[in-house]
């Protein structure tokens, strides 16, 4: 447990604004992008109840040393973390028509290239699986993989923004932009966890594999293409979702409702910009005699 850090989203996620938690059995590291940035800190956890963790002795000392190093790492990397989140958030990576080597379009391909470049800068081994999935490995003693999968494509920005959704800003202790919560922010935090582990200079028992998807918002064809040529990891989780834990999600269903041409009082109605995003607005246009409508 001391070797494997996990990322979970806080249940209080809001659109475009998100607090992130990086946690293991012994510590929780919070990269708060919803609360003030000075909340970015490490908090020691209590020992496992009913577990094998012994509070005294060499093992406890090892954990304490790891927590101290995590504190130092956070202090030294906080500004760089937010700057790197901005690097990917500032890329409009809504899926568009695919091109050779860019199955989800140019914007998504640019976001993937940027993430892989970032991972290489952290000393990770990277590759692209046909442009569908990015891979960044921190090699361990075994080729068996513990994986974290995030995605770099985003849903359309929609309406109601007070700033450019593809130019991340910091305001009143918040960072705001499309993808800060879903899922570019968590993807970058995962890379920083791997960076921290690599800098400890200790070979992990398993290979830590970071996966960067490119079509999560539009059907997850990226995973199908990845599994056609790569082995499944021994364990995989995703830092994407408002629930503390989601297990066994089987997929999604989308459908279309088709009606005859309008020829009555209903002229038109519209709502939303994507089938997998809650509409921020909806409206209907109807023919009516204002004099006969009930008073508001």
Provide a descriptive summary of the structure in words.
- The chain has 296 residues and is α+β, with helices and mostly antiparallel strands.
- The protein is built from four helices and 13 strands.
- The chain has helices at residues 58-89, 106-121, 184-199, 221-229; strands at 6-9, 19-23, 27-32, 41-44, 125-129, 133-138, 145-151, 169-171, 174-176, 207-213, 235-237, 266-271, 282-286.
- Strands 5-6-10-7-11 form a five-stranded mixed beta sheet, with helices on both faces. Strands 1-2-3-4 form a four-stranded antiparallel beta sheet, covered by helices on one side. Strands 8-9 form a two-stranded antiparallel ribbon.
- β2 and β3 form a beta hairpin.
- α1 packs antiparallel against α2 (106-121) and α1 crosses α3 (184-199).
- The longest helix is centred in the first third of the chain and has 32 residues, at 58-89.
- The radius of gyration is 22 Å and the shape is elongated.
- The termini are far apart.
- Mean pLDDT is 81; it is low at 1-55.
Count of separate DSSP helical elements: 4
How far apart the termini lie comes to: 61 Å
Q: Helicity level, as a percent range?
A: 10-25%
Count the strands?
13
List low-pLDDT spans.
1-55
Mean pLDDT: 81
- The value of Rg in angstroms is 22 Å
Structural class: alpha+beta
Assess the beta-strand content as a share of residues.
15-25%
Report the principal-axis shape.
elongated
Biggest pleated sheet: 5 strands, mixed
How would you spell out the order of helices and strands? Answer: EEEEHHEEEEEHEHEEE
Sheet with most strands: strand arrangement: 5-6-10-7-11
């Amino acid at each position: 447990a001391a070797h494997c850090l996990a990322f979970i989203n806080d249940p209080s996620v809001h659109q475009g604004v998100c607090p992130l938690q990086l946690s293991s059995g012994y510590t929780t590291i919070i990269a708060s992008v919803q609360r003030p940035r000075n909340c970015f800190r490490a908090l020691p956890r209590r020992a496992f109840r009913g577990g094998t963790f012994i509070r005294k002795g060499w093992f406890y000392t090892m954990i304490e040393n790891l927590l101290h190093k995590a504190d130092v790492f956070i202090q030294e990397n906080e500004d760089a973390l937010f700057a790197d989140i901005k690097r990917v958030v500032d890329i409009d990576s809504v899926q568009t028509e695919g091109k050779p080597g860019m199955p989800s379009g140019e914007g998504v391909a640019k976001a993937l290239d940027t993430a892989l470049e970032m991972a290489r800068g952290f000393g990770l081994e990277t590759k692209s699986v046909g442009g569908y999935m990015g891979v960044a490995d921190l090699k361990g003693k075994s080729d068996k993989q513990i994986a974290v999968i995030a995605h770099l494509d985003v849903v359309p920005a929609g309406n109601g923004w007070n700033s450019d959704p593809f130019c991340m800003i910091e305001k009143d202790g918040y960072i705001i932009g499309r993808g800060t919560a879903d899922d570019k922010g968590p993807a970058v935090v995962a890379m920083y966890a791997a960076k921290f582990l690599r800098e400890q200079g200790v070979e992990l028992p398993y290979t830590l594999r970071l996966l960067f998807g490119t079509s999560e918002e539009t059907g997850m064809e990226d995973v199908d293409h990845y599994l056609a040529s790569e082995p499944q990891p021994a364990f995989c989780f995703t830092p994407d979702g408002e629930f503390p834990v989601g297990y066994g999600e089987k997929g999604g269903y989308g459908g279309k409702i088709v009606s005859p041409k309008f020829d009555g009082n209903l002229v038109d109605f519209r709502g939303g910009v994507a089938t997998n995003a809650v509409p921020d607005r909806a409206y209907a246009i109807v023919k009516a005699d204002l004099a006969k409508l009930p008073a508001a």
